[in-house]
Amino acid sequence: MARSRSSSSGWWRYLHPSYYLKRPKRLALVFISFVFITFAVWDRQSLVQEQEAEISKLNEELIRLQDQLREVKGNLGYLGERMIHTNDNKIIKDLVDIDPINEERREKVKEAMLHAWDSYEKYAWGQDELQPQSKNGVNSFGGLGATLIDSLDTLYIMGLEDEFRRAREWVANSLDFNKDYEASVFETTIRVVGGLLSAYDLSGDEIFLEKAKDIADRLLPAWNTPSGIPYNRINLVHGNPHNPGWTGGNSILADSGTEQLEFIALSQRTGDPKYQQKVENVIIQLQKTFPSDGLLPIFINPHSGAASYSTITFGAMGDSFYEYLLKAWIQGNKTETVKHYRKMWETSMEGLLSLIRKTTPSSFTYICEKNGGSLSDKMDELACFVPGMLTLGSSGYGPEKAEKFLSLAKELSWTCYNFYQSTSTKLAGENYYFYVGEDMGIGTSWNILRPETIESLMYLWRFTGNKTYQDWGWDIFQAFEKNSRMDSGYVGLKDVNTGAKDNMMQSFFLAETLKYLYLLFSPPSFFSFDEWVFNTEAHPLRIIPRSDKEEGLGADGKANSRLVTRPFSRKHGRTGYS
Ligand code: DMJ
């Protein structure tokens, strides 16, 4: 008890003032401790406040940067978003290098697409093409929604999400191929099969593949000819393939040799080799009688597989046959399996050199047409895809030939640009004649919003980095804006000299012309040419490497079993729209 009492009184004495007043040292110690604790508490509080202010500043900065990134991604479209994930270094470099002039131009092109699309939605929804003057739709391809399908990938690439979603719903719920209509196998393939496959590759949405298979199955009997060279027309319900009367029973070269990319892609994505077999056989057959200069006339007999006497041209009815020789090689990842395509293409390019002439006095380089043994000094604007094709193909050559074909491409693009610059509307006519001492003169003077020159400028800019090609493309775009734009869409011109308007917004204006313009002003890594190949209607198809031991149809023409590959997967891209 005594112990406890004394310990308790010992503790209380510290609280008694006399304990400190008796000994001043104790008082000083208490004072110093008080000052030290006060300072420590105050210092800690102000530190926390400073840190909080700093954190809130950083948060604001983070939100600002996130907004900026969202904006940039929006401008780049869905693919930009995908590539930010998959191709970080390159895309970040491009983002840093973004050129404000190109940004502005790209926005203008996107706005033009929106205007064309809105007009189509308003006046011609679900029909093949819009007639802007009369404000109605017209079914020039059998009522397959050609403009809508041709536009799917352009909408996707430009990041026009709501428009793409509405188009997708139409494809899923209203697209009906059961039409008693004599369809062009070529046009239906490049626009409809190509457009649907491209939408599938970009979005991963199965509905597009399903529909592509449906229409391709309706076209497939066209290849059931003695030679395997297809008939060019077929009824979508009854079949009955045939050729149009005006060809004298012949098949057209471009119409018969421009289905390889789409049908090979379809086989790769469905695992069913029948599509690929039909179209690859066409090339095998043509290879058997391929001339030493690689130049085939535009008419081929579907019974014998031999060429009939007719014009040789890189313009109408010949053009995309040559384009697909190169692109089937690229699509097949340039492997041994597809080597024969490249070989044939290189042979044809040697033949092309024999058609090259220069004008006087200005030395414009142009491509002649050939009838029998003689050259004719005429060139279609359609042949202005050649500079782009040469640019794309030049990288497969050794340095010397690559340089030779690239400089030919540059010269031809200058000519094509002048097809536009030489008219009062600054829009090109359909074809040109070349006269000694007078350079070029217009033949057919309409302009139907074609894309070929812009397509070539896009490839040249991408491969050379020379911004002049972008400036030329911008000039052409401005001429379309000035002469072809109406409140209700875009029209062609009946005459590029007078500016008189026609009444048609061609579906390829949305599929090709505006898409190539958009790419012309986009950062180079926006679309990788190692990953994608564009069909002749500008629909990008994802390159799926074909192995040298592939189970498909080889260069020997022997059919093998299945080749199964997967399309662009949702995991890597944007989530789908279904
Ligand atoms: C498009 O349908 C394709 O580019 C085709 O290969 C040629 N014609 C038009 C565009 O001009």
Automatic annotation (TrEMBL):
UniProt function note: Class I alpha-mannosidase essential for early N-glycan processing. Progressively trims alpha-1,2-linked mannose residues. Produces Man(5)GlcNAc(2) from Man(8)GlcNAc(2), but only Man(6)GlcNAc(2) from Man(9)GlcNAc(2). Has difficulty acting on the terminal mannose of the b-branch. Involved in root development and cell wall biosynthesis.
Lineage: Eukaryota, Viridiplantae, Streptophyta, Embryophyta, Tracheophyta
One GO BP annotation of this record: carbohydrate metabolic process
Pfam families: Glyco_hydro_47
Cofactor: Mg(2+); Mn(2+); Ca(2+)
Disulfide bond sites: C384-C416
Gene behind the chain: LOC103701494
Localisation: Endomembrane system; Golgi apparatus membrane
Family membership: Belongs to the glycosyl hydrolase 47 family.
Lineage top rank: taxon: Eukaryota
Basic residues bias spans: 568-578
Chain sites annotated for binding Ca(2+): T536
Listed GO MF terms: calcium ion binding; mannosyl-oligosaccharide 1,2-alpha-mannosidase activity
Catalytic activity: N(4)-(alpha-D-Man-(1->2)-alpha-D-Man-(1->2)-alpha-D-Man-(1->3)-[alpha-D-Man-(1->3)-[alpha-D-Man-(1->2)-alpha-D-Man-(1->6)]-alpha-D-Man-(1->6)]-beta-D-Man-(1->4)-beta-D-GlcNAc-(1->4)-beta-D-GlcNAc)-L-asparaginyl-[protein] (N-glucan mannose isomer 8A1,2,3B1,3) + 3 H2O = N(4)-(alpha-D-Man-(1->3)-[alpha-D-Man-(1->3)-[alpha-D-Man-(1->6)]-alpha-D-Man-(1->6)]-beta-D-Man-(1->4)-beta-D-GlcNAc-(1->4)-beta-D-GlcNAc)-L-asparaginyl-[protein] (N-glucan mannose isomer 5A1,2) + 3 beta-D-mannose; N(4)-(alpha-D-Man-(1->2)-alpha-D-Man-(1->2)-alpha-D-Man-(1->3)-[alpha-D-Man-(1->2)-alpha-D-Man-(1->3)-[alpha-D-Man-(1->2)-alpha-D-Man-(1->6)]-alpha-D-Man-(1->6)]-beta-D-Man-(1->4)-beta-D-GlcNAc-(1->4)-beta-D-GlcNAc)-L-asparaginyl-[protein] (N-glucan mannose isomer 9A1,2,3B1,2,3) + 4 H2O = N(4)-(alpha-D-Man-(1->3)-[alpha-D-Man-(1->3)-[alpha-D-Man-(1->6)]-alpha-D-Man-(1->6)]-beta-D-Man-(1->4)-beta-D-GlcNAc-(1->4)-beta-D-GlcNAc)-L-asparaginyl-[protein] (N-glucan mannose isomer 5A1,2) + 4 beta-D-mannose
GO CC entries: endoplasmic reticulum; Golgi membrane
EC number: 3.2.1.-
Main location, first listed in the record: membrane
Identification of the protein by name: alpha-1,2-Mannosidase
Region named Disordered: 550-578
InterPro entries tied to this protein: 6hp_glycosidase-like_sf (IPR012341), Glyco_hydro_47 (IPR001382), Glycosyl_Hydrolase_47 (IPR050749), Seven-hairpin_glycosidases (IPR036026)
Biological or metabolic pathway of the protein: Protein modification; protein glycosylation
Catalytic residues of the enzyme: E187, D319, E430, E452
Key words of the record: Calcium, Coiled coil, Disulfide bond, Glycoprotein, Glycosidase, Golgi apparatus, Hydrolase, Magnesium, Manganese, Membrane, Metal-binding, Signal-anchor, Transmembrane, Transmembrane helix
Topology relative to the membrane: Single-pass type II membrane protein; Single-pass membrane protein
